[in-house]
């Protein structure tokens, strides 16, 4: 006899019956949201498929290269596929880029020069960028190279402060690059929709057409039918162990946008005079191609898990961002616990629900690039992969957990329920 999901959770995972009942209620509430999610997923799957076909991808593109990597057709064709998918002039996709932070650093260092100024129009950037920019003193930062930094905070409703953006652009002709962070990062605000990104870029360009509009696109790929480069961004960057790697890419990152800016970044990734022409691919090209092909589906599975988590903890009385019916532009689900023990136990519970290292107890630690201790739950097949189910948080008030990922919706759901069960057993939550 075929068991129901409720039977399995109750008998095999010892999930309380009351939690299983709550999960059924949540799924009834959110099923309408999944209809719109599936429409975007289908559109993006067609888009990726067409890019593969247009660039005549074959198994010859999955071969290995060594040494200098001259003439690696798999590497060079993948750049073209990404450019097609992201509707831009050029892309640089490499396994040598170790993270989203690295991709952003390459883009910034490649396109900024001494006495230039970065203007962030989305407030304080993600924690790891503070060391790159020099907000947090760090050897080798842009600040050490004479690049200055300014920021305009978002308004209280999450909108852009157009008045102060205009004032900065008119008053300071050293501003060379505008930084736009699409995702919430470790903030408490809505992620930026493409409509908002398009609007602010149009506004900026109407005042200063010479500035580079750069988008930190981490966690945002395939959440809509377009990307920042399709709505006016000159340049953007992201990680392959997030959305575009589809849970298959073992490492890597991308930089995409206008050809001249991508080329400048390539000289920073390798060296002047070499740029994109070198770089062997270590036999990972099949995974990079296959990961991109799966990315529209996997990203939306993760998004469904975030919607489930949002509605569940909203019912339990917690403040969540975004709410389950809100339009989303990244895969991150934030839950404000206002309590360190609750935050830590939630992350420990997500670790228990992982396929890898489920037996490990995660603890906060001094993670490189962060100013606060950070707790990370990530029992993933790819180390640090945040398209796989994970949860992390800086240990600081108001103790917000950031959930992301899930290669399948079903895993996201089970992982969140195991975390809830763990919190109940610790007496942190009662139903």
Describe the structure.
The protein is an alpha/beta fold and 431 residues long. It contains 11 helices and 12 strands. The strands form 2 sheets. A 7-stranded mixed β-sheet has the order 1-7-6-5-4-2-3, sandwiched between helices. A 5-stranded antiparallel β-sheet has the order 8-9-12-11-10, with helices on one face. It is globular, with a radius of gyration of 22 Å. It starts with a helix and ends in a 6-residue tail after the last helix.
List the secondary-structure elements in sequence, H or E.
HHHEHEHEHEHEEEHHEEHEEEH
**Shape by Cα distribution:** globular
Please mark out the parts with pLDDT under 50 across 5 or more consecutive residues, or reply none: none
Helix content: 40-55%
- Give the integer mean of the pLDDT values: 95
From the alpha-carbon coordinates, what is the Rg to the nearest angstrom?
A: 22 Å
Tags for this model:
431 residues, alpha/beta, five-stranded antiparallel beta sheet, 11 helices, 40% helix
Quick description:
The protein is of the alpha/beta class and 431 residues long. It has 11 helices and 12 strands. 51% of the residues are buried.
